Amino acid sequence: MQLRLIAVGPRQPEWVNTAFCEYSRRFPGECRLELTELALGPRGKGRDPQHALAVESERMIKAIPSHAWVVALDERGTAWTSRELARRLEGWMNSGQDVALLMGGPDGLSAACKAHAREQWSLSALTLPHGLARVVVAEALYRAHSLLKGHPYHRD
C-alpha cells in the first residue's frame, strides 16, 4: 500500500524535507509514504486568486492515483486522535487501496478537490505553515503505523 501526500506549494526549507524523509523512510515496504509536490498556481498583483486555485485543483486531481482512497486535509475536517488514525490506517491497508492525502496551497483546497475526498482530516485547530503540516502528517501516519505494529514509538 502506498500513502501519497499530494501537496501544493513551493520548495520547503531543508529541515522540512529532512523531517518528512526521516518519517517516510521508517515505513516498512508494505506501507510506503511518498510526497508529490505541485507548483503553485499563478499569483501576483492583478491576478485572480480563484484562477490560481482552479489551476492547483486541476493539477491535484490529475496527481491522484487511480482507485485511491482520497483524504482532504482541511481545517473544517474531523480531528483524529493517534488511535483513531491508526484504526483508519488499518482499514485503508485492509482495503488494498492506495491513499492520497490532499494538502492545498495558500488558498486551501477547491470544492472540486474536496468532492473527490471520501474523508476530511483536520490536523489541528491551529493554522500551521505548510512545511510544518507536511511533517505533522508524516509523523502522525508513522505513529499510527507503529501503534498497529505494536512498536514502542507510541507511549500511552
Automatic annotation (TrEMBL):
Keywords: Cytoplasm, Methyltransferase, rRNA processing, S-adenosyl-L-methionine, Transferase. InterPro entries: Alpha/beta_knot_MTases, RlmH-like, tRNA_m1G_MTases_N. It is found in: Cytoplasm. SUPFAM superfamilies: alpha/beta knot. It is an enzyme of class 2 (transferase). Belongs to the RNA methyltransferase RlmH family. HAMAP family: 23SrRNA_methyltr_H (MF_00658). Homodimer. Specifically methylates the pseudouridine at position 1915 (m3Psi1915) in 23S rRNA. This is Ribosomal RNA large subunit methyltransferase H.
